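Dear colleague,

Thank you for sharing your sequence with our group. We've completed the structure prediction you requested, and as agreed, I am returning the results in plain text so they can be pasted directly into your records. Please verify that the sequence below matches your submission; if there's any discrepancy, let me know and we will rerun it promptly.
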Amino acid sequence: MTTISGLWSPRSREALTPWALVVAGLLALYLPSFIDLFRGAWASETNAHGPIVMVVAFAFLYRRVRQMAGQGMLNGRPQPLAGSLIFVSGLLCYVLGRSQSVLILEMGSLILVLSGIIVRVFGLSTWSRMWFAFFFMLFMIPLPASIVDAVTLPMKIAASYSVEHLLYWIGYPIARSGVILFIGPYQLLVADACAGLNSLFTLEALGLLYMNLVRHPSMLRNAALATLIMPISFAANTIRIALLALITYHLGDAAGQGFLHSFSSLMLFVSALLLIIGVDRLLTWIVRKPQDAAPAASTSPTTTFTWQHMGAVSRRTSVGLLTGMVLAPALAQALTPVMSDSATPAQLDDSVPRQFGQWALMPARIPQAGISITGEQRRDQDQLYDDVLLRTYVNKTGDQVMLAIAYAREQRQDVKLHLPEICYPAQGYKVLQLMPVPLAIDGTTLPGKHMLASGNGRLEAVTYWTRISDGYPQDGLGMRLKIFQDGLHGRISDGVLVRASTVLHNNDETHTAFALQQRFLRELVAAVNLNNGSNVELVARR
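Please find the predicted structure tokens below.
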């Protein structure tokens, strides 16, 4: 057992001073980041596990450091060069992540910075005894939105599918369209937070912590438990959504969205955690050998902990670390792009003509697919688009084309344009065909895509392109790289999605529809460019 005494003796104060400088530097570096996380990503249900993981990770690290210090295990050989390289790499990641709003770099740098300090002062062998604390910190970092979008949508569809069949099997009147459930007179949207990704990360993190604390010797048992956490989380989340659907069906929408909604989240977490412990007991019983005997209890001598156990850190080293951690936020601030005050938001309704060439505006007879993943209302600070235009045009021969234009003045790493192949499946469509194509628009060729999708009782051909600043990225990763590249040059990217779609009777009309849409888009861009009052750039300026 380790006791703490003599913390404020003269020798302890002398050992504490350099560490106080290091802690001050860490606070200067990461306190603003944590404040932003609590106000932003961690305030959402999707990343609500972040603060829990943070507290547990730091508590585990503190416990491990105190344990090693009390046992005299912090006397490793310092490695200044390796530690400095890791530390500087962490600061560079912080500067890039903080200035360009890339959370995985900004918060991931904390692991590198702390690791660099420990290797610099105590050596790599000491760090290796603390590795789990740093590994555990990975779970508090919000995932990139591109990964979340790619993982969340299939999870939402799978959960919706499971709930639909479960409740139908029980005998309830339920149907599904994409991630929207229809039960009785109610329509329920399985939102991102209901996908189970947050509970999966929380339970996986706590499961790994549980295994680390229990330290079961069987690698087979540990691997099996870590793997089973994922289906356990999915099953618990499916039951939660089913219960919410039943509550709404029997008690009304107010009950389903009120206190019982939050209470169901707590019950999901508690029940899944108990299930993990139960599965662990079962696995332990399976892998246990009859001849295994309970290990003898070990005792450790009582050790007095003082700051002298933390090792001697020279003032020169601590001042150097502090200087680097103070300069990094200043450099990040200098590299942060700032939007020009002269930039004016687009006015799509005034800029896009109601009649051009052979095309004229007509009342929309068929509702268009939405331009976001779920169509759910976002918080004001997370509004995706500054302006949206949805229209239907018809030519003299009766051909109809649905036009959707979405403009965002500011593209960020966490909020960017949604691609049709992502938002269509969320609304009940199945993507049958998706291929990149060169589009002859505005006297040049720009990269776009053709998509064929079926759902909601219709077959739809889609032609679209996305413009980020002066580029045309084809996927989410390309968009983020373009935003990052513009940010490093001090520019904030704007973005626009231009989409034309046509309802088909059969697959034989696909080629004709794509050719019609390309002519429509070519005439549209020419008309917008000729509009003197237009401030919309559907294509990049040459």
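Summary note from our side: The two ends are 72 Å apart (CA to CA).

Kind regards,
the structure core
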